[in-house]
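Posting for a labmate who doesn't have an account.
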Amino acid sequence: MSIKAQPKPPNIKATTLVLMGINFLIFGVNNITHTIAQKENSASEIAGILRGPIS
């Protein structure tokens, strides 16, 4: 096995794309739940969605 003199630098572009993808998913889910909450027009529905991930 040969050891390379310089370690490969981390792929910043790929990392940025992954983080952007995660942000897009989070904001997408938030927008969907917000739209559902508006259609339901129910405060208890919103509270249930907010409590779900925490508990």
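Reply:
Got it, the structure tokens are right above this. The mean pLDDT is 75.
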